[in-house]
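To the wet lab folks,

You asked to see what we're planning to order before we commit. Fair enough. Below is the target structure as tokens, and below that is the sequence we designed to fit it. If anything looks off to you, flag it before the synthesis order goes out.
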């Protein structure tokens, strides 16, 4: 126990930096706050909070507004954060970005079609997910940062969402084009039907009573 009052370290190799009425229940733990008393005997943990005010962890910034808040510039985290509800939120302002690249929508669709998307578990865990593989995604779209070998092992949810959105935009464009074409064909069909009806009327033919035409065998 380095500081504070009424703190108690119950196991070896743990440290309480300070605070009030904290108690470690495991080994190799680091703790700072107020009234921290874990309900389980767990090792290798860091605790930082109190009963009324949740802890916040900030890296590369002085103002910490969220449970985890990282950086204040494009080189140290861009202000990315974990919300109080548990959602990781990337820095994505247009002002953070440059070297914009136009995407070939058809190529994006072909890339999506080529991806191997499966359900899988992380090795040695019961953590189940559905998604593509980083190697395939990097080979197809070239996203990532730094060493290509590292980029081919990790995958940003931001890139997956971006590819899905661009593909969706192209599918919507195709859908709009198909709807327009169908409407034009429907209009043309109606006009032809009306023409046939007028011709039949002039010829004195009742289209609704004519016998069906049978094809000779």
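Sequence we intend to order:
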């Amino acid at each position: 126990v380095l500081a504070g009052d009424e703190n108690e370290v119950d196991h070896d190799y743990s440290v309480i930096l300070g605070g009030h009425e904290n108690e470690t229940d495991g080994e190799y733990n680091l703790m700072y706050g107020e009234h921290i008393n874990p309900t389980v005997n767990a090792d290798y943990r860091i605790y930082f909070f109190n009963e009324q005010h949740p802890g916040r962890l900030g890296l590369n910034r002085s103002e910490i507004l969220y449970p985890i808040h990282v950086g204040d510039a494009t080189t140290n985290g861009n202000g990315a954060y974990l919300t109080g509800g548990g959602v990781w939120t990337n820095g994505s302002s247009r002002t953070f970005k440059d070297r914009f690249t136009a995407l070939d929508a058809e190529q994006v669709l072909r890339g999506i079609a080529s991806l191997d998307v499966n359900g899988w578990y992380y090795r040695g865990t019961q953590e189940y997910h559905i998604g593509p593989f980083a190697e395939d995604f990097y080979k197809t779209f070239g996203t990532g940062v730094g060493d290509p070998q590292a980029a081919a092992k990790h995958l940003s949810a931001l890139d997956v969402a971006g590819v899905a959105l661009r593909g969706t935009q192209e599918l919507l464009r195709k859908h709009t084009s198909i709807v327009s074409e169908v409407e034009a064909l429907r209009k043309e069909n109606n006009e032809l039907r009306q023409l046939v009806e007028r011709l039949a009327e002039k010829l004195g033919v009742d289209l609704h009573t004519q016998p069906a035409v049978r094809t000779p065998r």
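Structural context that might help your review: The radius of gyration is 32 Å. The chain has four helices and eleven strands.

Thanks,
Computational group
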